[in-house]
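Hi there. Long-time user, first ticket. I'm pasting a complex I've been working with (about 582 residues overall). I'd like to know whether the download I got is complete or cut off, because the file seemed smaller than I expected. Thanks.
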Amino acid sequence: MTETAANAIELKNTSVHFDNGDQQIDAVKNVDLTVPRGDIYGIIGYSGAGKSTLVRVINLLQKPTAGTVIVNNQKIQQLKPVELRQARKKVSMIFQHFNLMKSRTVQGNVEYPLLGTKISKADRHAKAEKLLKLVGLSEYAGTYPGQLSGGQKQRVAIARALASDPEILISDEATSALDPKTTKSILELLKQLNRDLNLTIVLITHEMQVIKSICHNVAVMDAGEIIERGSVAKVFTEPQQKLTNDFVETSTNVKEAIERITSTIKISEFKADQELMYFNFIGNSTKQSVVSELSQKYGVDVNILFANIDQIDGENVGYMIAIITGDLAGFNGAVQQMKTEGVKTRILTDETLKGGDGQ
Amino acid sequence: MNAIMPNVMAMKGEFIQATWETIYMTLMSAIVSAVLGLLVGVLLVVTQPGGILEDKLTYSVVDKLVNLLRSIPFIILLAVISPLTKFLVGTTVGTTASLVPLIFGIFPFYARQVQNALLDVDHGVIEAAESMGSSPMAIIFRIYLREGLADIIRVSIVTIISLIGLTTMAGAIGSGGLGDVAINIGYARFENDITFMAMIIILILVFAVQLIGDWIVRRVEHN
Ligand SMILES: Nc1ncnc2c1ncn2[C@@H]1O[C@H](COP(=O)(O)OP(=O)(O)O)[C@@H](O)[C@H]1O
Ligand SMILES: [Mg+2]
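Hi, the file is complete. Here it is re-exported in full:
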């Protein structure tokens, strides 16, 4: 019981099967998912992986074919229609295409969830005004959504989502239609809501960049299954699955760099005292100086072809690809010792790169 | 004027009367058809597969009924429905009696138009409303009918204009109105200026409906 209380969402062995006559789709397959209260939990996967279907199970917009769904300590499949509608008010949702009502003003949209409730008209106005202020759109109260930019529309949608005082916010690709700068500001807003309102956020995306900037935990979804999960820092630095690694390397530009490098230089033509090495620095970014110390100690030459630094869940992570020339045995041995201190390395050869994932 | 339209000038009173009859038939049948058409249109949208109150049986029965009624040519409907008209109104001639065939002639058409207008309401908005815990009734009144209002008004204009056309057909078989004047007086007596005048008045009515409708659409639409 104490365990359930700590969790906002628990999906147990949940499956969703679509039967469209001749077309059978297992959109979600035996998924277990636990989202702790107050977490920002990311779900990443390519289009068609089943992400939307999975989160639609959380508010029962999609009935699961099998499995148990516990949200805010309620087994929601057992609720009567009226109770379910009440429960849904505590699980708000924002969408890629905003889904605002074009016939209502910004204020009208934000007030919508409060229509038909006991809240008085004056209180409704006041609440909408407060929420619009929170998302920074006070002066747009009387405007119709058609007049707003994408980022502004998503802010209105967020204000509307907050009107029913939800405990959980589900974001289904909410930043996918926005430019990078607007994406960043929306993510900042979500982060602020998570912190200030202790709002649990489940965030779907196909971009690792988004996960990296605000999520604490992440699940990687592929063909209806969660194939990998854990803290963002862990999944990001030690991806176990090829798909996860794909997402990580795409978002850090490592993938692109490896392609660029291997198209211009041939590892097979390296001299005996040369190797191509991939470095991964976790934590304090000054660790990169470790490499220069070691290179001096062993008299090796480090020719950096690519370097990038990133912030994951508040921690610095560096990536570097370099050609090492000199006493390889000594240098490799020493660099191996640094593993426990957050410096990980991998020698890139034609064999290891053939898979295309650099693992 | 007397030289160009001698017969019209002699029948000023009849024309005014006929114009009012046409307006009366159009308005009364429009009001009843609007209620029936909206009900059926909404019913079709909510019960269709994937709708908010999905009900395959209801949907398919209503859908087929609408198709059936729409397939009957109006001039045939006028004749076929006369026993029902007689039962409901007590007579089959006159403006009030014509309301029965007019309503049956137009409301299935209007229902289909309403259905199409509502289908254009963004499905994402419906889903958003469901996720906010809206009841089916709330979704019908606060989302479908509201978000679809501009389109509903557009199809209403088209329907009223069709309806004016139908009143003239009903007029031809004795319901009164401008159709009656044009056919049973102008055409039957070879008094061409009467037929022509009836047409002019009908065109004015159609343009007036179009203008007023467009003006309302502009007021409710916020794209
Ligand atoms: N209502 C539905 N009926 C039939 N198939 C569906 C339905 N919704 C989703 N699917 C299918 O389920 C799979 C997963 O879809 P979705 O959950 O939308 O993926 P994602 O959000 O990860 O892109 C896809 O193959 C999609 O075509
Ligand atoms: Mg999706």
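A couple of notes from our side: The first helix of chain A runs from residue 2 to 6. The mean pLDDT of chain A is 91.
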